Each structure stands twice: as C-alpha cells, then as structure tokens.
Amino acid sequence: MELLMSEDILPRSTQSTAGHWPAWSFTEEEKMNSRSLLRVTPWLIILVGSLIFLLAGCAGLVQKGGELLDGSATEEKTIALYRSFSGKETTEIRTLRHKDGTECIEISGSTWPGLALRGSMPAGDGTFELVEARILSTHVHGWNEFTLDLLGSAHFSVSGNIVGRLRIAGEVERVQISSGRIRLKSNRLTGTTALGSLRNRRERILALTEWMQMYQTGLQDRKVFADQKEFKDYWQGRLFPELVPKKKRPPEYNAKNAEWSRAGDVKWNLDYTKYLFPEELWELRNSGALLRDWEEALPWIYMEYLWNNIINFFSETNLMIVKTRETMENSTATFTLMELFRMGGVIMWPLLLFSIVTVGITLERAIYLLYHNLKMDDLKEKVSAGIRVGKPGEAREFLESHTKRRMGARILLTLVNRSGLSEHRLEKAVEAEAMRCISSLENGFNLLTTLGSLSPLTGFLGTVTGMIAAFKSISEAADVNAQIVANGIYEALITTVFGLIIAIVAMSAHSIFTNIVDKFASETETACSDLIIELSESAGFSESCSSGKACEAAAHEN
C-alpha cells in the first residue's frame, strides 16, 4: 500500500491526503467533455433504440397487415378448410373460431355468392344443427346484409382426414331475420330501424316469390334458371313490362293491354296488374314497392325463390381437405426478417442497401457529433476575458488546447489570430472557418435526405410490381378466393413497410442532427459578433496582438 501511495508511482493530483484511496482530479476540459457526453448520449440512445424498435416490429407489422387483409384479425378466424370442385362450381366448408373461443361451421358456394350457412360444431357422429344464414344482397346503390335464423340438421364426416362428406337431412326452415344492416347511397341503417325495414321487405319478397312459384307451376314448360341473369331476364319483363323494350314484354301484355290505364300519378298499367297479379300484390306493384324491392334486393329475391335448390346444391357433397386445424394454427407464427425479405422480392435488395447506408450514416454522424463538443459559452467567456485584460496569449493557448474536439475553438482561434485585420476582413476570415467547420458537421446530411425520399418510393415500386404479379396469378388461378387475393396483397405491401421504416429513421436522424448543427451555428454567429465588437472597442488588445511576434507568426500561418 505504501508503495502504491508513494509520490514515485502516483502524480500529486491523484495522491490521497490521509492515507485513503486517491481522489482523482480532472481538468476543466475533461469535465466539459463529460458534461457534453451526458447531454448527447440520451439522444443517441433514443435514436438507436427507435431504430431497433422499428426493425424488430417490422415482422409483426406485416403479419398484422396480412391478418387484417385475410380476415384472421377480425372477430372470426378460419382454423380448418374443406373444398369441393365440380366444374366451375365450388363448395367450401370452414371451421371458424370466434374471439371468445367458440367455434362454428360455415358452408358457402361459388354458385351462391353472398350466402353462407352456419351451424354448430359436428358431434362425434358428425351431426350438427343449421342455425343461421348470413346473406349479403348487393345492388348498384348499396346492399342489404342480414342474418336469417334457420331450423335444420345436417351431417358432416371426414374419412382418413382427407375426404369430407356433407349431407343436409330434410327441409331447412327459414324462421326470422335476427339482425342486419342496410346501405343505400350515402344512408346507412342499423339496429332496430334496419331490422324492421328488413323484416318488412322479407314479407313482401316472400309474398312475391310464393306467387312466382305458383305461376311457374301452372306452366307446362317450367323455366329452369342457370344463374341470376336468366332469372332477371325472364321475370323482369313479366313483372314490369312497362320498363323493358317491347320485344321483351310478355304476349299477354301486348295483346290484352294495348291501352294504358292511369290513376293519378301512378304510371303502371293497372289492367295488367289485375290481370297477372293476385290481389294481395296489387298495392305493392302500383305503389312502386315491388319495383324498389326488385332493384335493391334482386339477389335476395333469387335466393328466396330457389331456397330448396340451394339446400339440394349443398347436400350430398364430397369435399377434399385443403388446410387442417394444425396447419391453419401454425400459419399464424411470426415471420422472421429473412422470410419477409424473401417474400418482398427483388426490390428488397436496394432497400437492404438503403437501410445499411442509413444506419451507417446515422451512427457515424451521432458518434461524430458526440465526440465534438459544440458548446460555445465557455469559449466565448475565456476569449472575452482575454480581450478585457489585454492577454491574448492566454486566450490563444486555451483555444489551441481545445481545437481537437471543439469546432468552436477552431473558429474563435481564427478570430484571435486575425484580430489585427480590419473588421470586414476579420469577419470574412471567421466566416470562412465557420463554413468549413459546419460543412464537416453536415457531412452526410444530404444523403440522409435522399434516402428518406427514395426509400418509400422504392417500396411503393415493389408494391406495384408485386400487385401486378399477384393479379396475374389470380387471373390464371382456376379457383379464386379471398385468401389468394389477401396473400398476394400483403406480400406486395412488405416492400412499402420496409421503405417507410427506412424513411422514418433517415428523416428522424436528419431532423435531430440538423437541429444540433443549427443551434451550434446560431451560437457561433452570436459569439463571433460579440467578440468582434469587443475587439473593435479594445485598442490595447488589437495593438498587442498586432505587435506581438507570436501573433504575427500565427497570422502568417493562417
């Protein structure tokens, strides 16, 4: 211990006075640099932490975007999928899980877009209850969306986890609309208002379709409709002959009702109404309610008219398993950055280059600004004190000892060394040195701005090219569903996410660094202006500096 505390080993500044451990002392410059480090370090930590946070959250962000597009982030999630293929017709059975953990089975088909039958989960023997039908009936001005309660039973069994068989036993009774929404142009109805309107419309539709079925039964050649278009072309001319071309009108209308009958502002042929329609439909047709229902709910009318055909279509269907519960649940695993990079395509390579350059410049500039103390207050006070007491040598020595890590010391040293010049020439010399220092501080700022602008544009380019490829795949696919479309879209959006993250980092770093440099420039300008004024007022300082050999040598060097 005595050896360690001896004067030969430790300098006087570090020796203890009472036999204790040394009390380390620091120079004023070291204290100033430490305080500068403490001021800048939090900004650097925040910047690097934000960068890490953005990159780490990229995978989760893209995954959540994909879940929103394919529906898995909403109230229901598909956990198993079976599909049948019969020519152009497709039937799907999905096992859905609600957010509350309950599960149900959903049956849909390409022949009946906008219709989905739902039932309870099959029991051990495969039987389940059909409980509701989800119906979306669209038209040019909006849509009717509602849930229709059902009473019926069905059977779904899977053999060997490969082939499933669906069978609907007996008739499925339609009970009542339990909920729904209506959209008509800019108006939207929900709650009890929409429910009442939908129930009233369904009563009218049931009355109409019941008569249509009876009308068809009385014909010798009963019409079989292949799709909704045939259904519309056949019935619109009979229901509303006044609205269709003459060649599409039924013979009864042209032969027996050549003359129009009008009552007030009613535009219908009242004689034709009484001739063709039953009495309970007269008021509906003459008031225009029947036409409104036809224009705003044609898909709904089509489904009600062919309800038994719909049940027969789904019954006795064989389906192949597409995705099991295990594969669906495993597909929700978080993507790694490498997987996202691969999914993003070739545009990810320039984005990778941009990200490397952005991170490199950000870290290099942060370290550079951290290393150089940009405070001017203490430098200005030291030089000002030298001016007042007429000791330029002390001020010069102080500034020379700080030029390595302090830009302000370099600028003020130029001012001191050139103090013998005229005020105008002195300002020019100081301004030139300040520009050199600020230019070195701003090195790389323009590149950050360029990367901040170019990265999102490159990401958008990748999204556009990805969308082109996605829609090309969709056009070539034999069977198109929402999942295929969603997968193509969220994979194409990956490049946009990465491009925006790079832009956020680049522009944030540029903004922080620019504020630091601007503050330094402002403080430097103020300090130099004040010191030049003091120099012009201090003749003694100017004379001593201009006549001193050291000052002349320094001025010659500069």
What labels describe this entry?
558 residues; alpha+beta; eight-stranded antiparallel beta barrel; 17% strand; elongated; disordered N terminus
Supply Rg: 42 Å
Helical content (DSSP H or I, runs of 4+): 55-70%
User: How is the biggest beta sheet arranged?
Assistant: 8 strands, antiparallel, barrel
| Computed structural class | alpha+beta
Helix segment tally? 23
Shape: elongated
Low-confidence region ranges: 1-26, 69-73, 260-265, 540-558
For the secondary structure, the number of strands is 9
SS strand fraction? 15-25%
First-last Cα distance: 52 Å
> Order of strands across the widest beta sheet?
1-2-3-4-5-6-7-9
Overall mean pLDDT score?
A: 77
Walk me through the topology:
Elements: H1 2-5, H2 28-56, H3 58-70, E1 76-86, E2 89-98, E3 103-109, E4 115-119, E5 127-139, E6 142-159, E7 163-184, E8 187-189, H4 191-217, H5 228-239, H6 251-256, H7 270-276, H8 279-287, H9 289-296, H10 298-305, H11 307-314, E9 317-323, H12 325-330, H13 337-344, H14 348-371, H15 377-389, H16 392-400, H17 407-417, H18 423-441, H19 445-476, H20 482-492, H21 494-537, H22 539-547, H23 549-557
Antiparallel strand pairs: 1-2, 1-9, 2-3, 3-4, 4-5, 5-6, 6-7, 7-8, 7-9
Helix pairs in contact: 2-14, 2-21, 3-20, 4-10, 14-19, 14-21, 15-16, 15-21, 16-17, 17-18, 17-21, 18-21, 19-20, 19-21
Explain this structure.
- The chain has 558 residues and is of the alpha+beta class.
- The protein has helices at 2-5, 28-56, 58-70, 191-217, 228-239, 251-256, 270-276, 279-287, 289-296, 298-305, 307-314, 325-330, 337-344, 348-371, 377-389, 392-400, 407-417, 423-441, 445-476, 482-492, 494-537, 539-547, 549-557, and strands spanning 76-86, 89-98, 103-109, 115-119, 127-139, 142-159, 163-184, 187-189, 317-323.
- The chain has a domain at 73-330.
- The chain is built from 23 helices and 9 strands.
- It has an 8-stranded antiparallel barrel.
- The protein starts with a helix and ends with a helix.
- Mean pLDDT is 77; it is low at 1-26, 69-73, 260-265 and 540-558.
